Amino acid sequence: MGIDFVDGLARFGDAPALLTRSGETISYRELSRRVDAFALSLGPKKRLLALEAAHSEHMVVAYLGALRGGHAVALVSAEDGAEGVRRFQPELFYRSVDGRWRLDAAEEEPGAASLHPDLALLLKTSGSTGIGKGVRLSRQAVASNASAIAAYLGLVGSDRAALILPLHYCYGLSVLNAHLAVGASVWLSDRSIVSAGFLPGLKESGATNLSGVPYSFELLDRIGFRTESFPALRLMTVAGGRLAAEMLRSYARHMERQGGHFFAMYGQTEATARMAYLPPDMALAHPDCIGVAIPGGELAIVDEQGRSVDAWGQTGELVFRGPNVMMGYAETRDDLARGAELSELATGDLAERDPRGLFRVVGRKSRMSKIAGIRLGHDALEAGLAAQGIGAAVVGDDERVVAVFASAHSARHVRDALAQVAGLTRTQADAVRVAALPRLASGKVDLKALACHLTPEPPSEAADVRQAFAEAFYPYPVEDGDSFARLGGDSLRYVQLYAALERRLGRLPEDWERLTIADLAARQPKSRKEQRSVGLDILIRALAITLVVIHHATLWPIPGGSAVMMVMIGYGLARFQKEALLERDMGRFFRPLVPVLAPYFLIVGLYSLAWGEVPWASILLAGNLGFADPANHSMLPYLYWFIEAYAQTLLVFAALFLLAPLRRLAMRDAFMAGCVMLGGALLLRFAQPVLWPIGPRAIFSLPWVLHLAMLGWCVASADTLGKRLTIVAVAAMAVPLLAYGGGNWTGSWVRYGLVFAAVAGLAFLPRRIPLPNGLAGAALAIAAAGYHIYLFHRFVPETILAPIAPTVPGPAFALLAILGGLLCGLVAFRFQQIVVRRGSRRSFSGAAASHRRMPAVAS
Description:
This protein is of the alpha/beta class and about 850 residues long. Residues about 125-130, about 455-460 and about 845-859 have low confidence and may be disordered.
């Protein structure tokens, strides 16, 4: 039997067939000529060609040429190479060696079985690694499946496929086959989805069709695919696994808005590629269905005795009948001589049919556990977790099930959710966080690689360090595989945890915030005798809060401490929360507000009791906006404007990063995005007196200080010398204007002079500053307690020292106010640590017991 998309290439003439990685366009006429030439080079006797499945026109020519010459092709990945097919004794190898494609003949083995006349393709089973099973596909199967796919997708000659899938994977090969069947063109992309040039390359290619596996769509979401415009794109397809219902709906809606279609499809290598598809008009209402059989095929459900299950809603094994069913499996060369052995394909998937005739896969026969008499389908458990917003791969045996995940959830939360979904106890369910789920070349999760997590590991040695993390992030649970960055740490927790870890471990590495708890615990503690050094940002925070206390206790014109603290807010956002902003994970981004607002609202409550009135402006975090006044008790004293400005700054950053253009810019260059935000903030600052004339109270408002946070973002994002020079130059130009516009008095110049010093220091000074042990300890303590010092330092002169104020000389009173204010904040912070430690230790003890029962594997 002939194969239409192979034998009829020339009929499409000069229409483009392939767009290569080098930018060359190969017409159908030229492709047909090259295919004929390659077919002749293989000779008349039917042979097995082992072909490296690279995204190259040479590979496509060889594939089509072998089929046109009546030969059989065994597709192998570059990773597997010849070893993956050696047991089938291929006569020929065609592969890239040192950048050049080469056809090599193997030594003919005596007695090697002849190939069956119908055999066209030998593919490795989908989802297998290493050698895997061989799937024998006939010429009829390859031809019929290409025609069926082209038919239900409505492919036409003007279409152009973006081929991003591996060609040794049946899905990727089917994209090539189906488009060639109608005279459409194929862009052979060599770019990873997450590479910087992928989206521009996709746009320049003029691709109308894009196909991917579920993981491809996760990556597309990560790079902001749906925020870009692709005018030519009319068709997207997904196969190779279950795409989460909400994501499927999102892409279906996106394509609907673009005037295109989104097809969810179902298939297996054993059926050449496709068996079913979900019509696009049903995607929104039935995202959990695989749909209907492809043209020329038939789906059925059978029970354990092989009897047909006709009633809808009943579960059984899904069976497919059609011309694209494989001839059978192959383990050795002798198997390649056998003819077709199957008339239908038992898929191994459990499915049901709904009243509309749509089929739904509910699990896999081989992915089952039976625990305490309960039969559990791993696919169903994954779906149950997904319904709770947890993306995980579930593996298990008849003793327990384990959810392996890479999201920001805690392992305890995922374990509890798994136990609840499965109806098991917590001793029968576990959860393990990994850096990333291992995947096969097809994009599917490598379940075999995850099976190692079923074997318990010894308990972690990280108890002491984990306790420090537990205290810093209380009430959120922590695990050995967590890091400061993964837990969504912020600048406040950074300082507190930095101080706690330095006490336990001595000097920390510069990238400690990205090391796991287990990695940190494994570090050898440094000698206490060696000279200590303090992180530059820690030192700046300590100096800034000390200046705030001094400014409030004296008449000296040094009002720069709070301004520098605003710079450090932006600096911390860029260092610790940029990822949450880019991923639009606003729950994680706003998490730092909880430890900030809890003591703030305690103070609001105290003032409410003292005044007998509720300062609603402060409760709404809007007291600094100019419409309230402490005199009439509608807001707290102006001292607390900083907390309101901090909360408002977070809101502004969140709103800005919800804008797709800025988010895309930040993905490419966070520094440039910061410069754009800084420019807008500076315009707002200088326009405020005209647009929002609120008089002297303007100095407490967000427009007056937002640019300081943007400066901090920029200096934290300046990762090259040129960028550091740029931001310092911008600060040098802006500071005189800001000082002049801020009243042109000594305090204004001091304020912005300190801001410039902070920016320049962060840009060019060493990341760590050596200090005597005593000063280093004091700096760490003050920085860690900085927020509490800010909140409580004025209680000392205004309440505790107030009765003796008339009898104490001014300088002495100021000194007492400064030292007392610092001490008061340190005591408040220490009290909070004691409370948190008791709570975290109860939580930590429960977690440790869980670890002893069922240890998680840190990855």
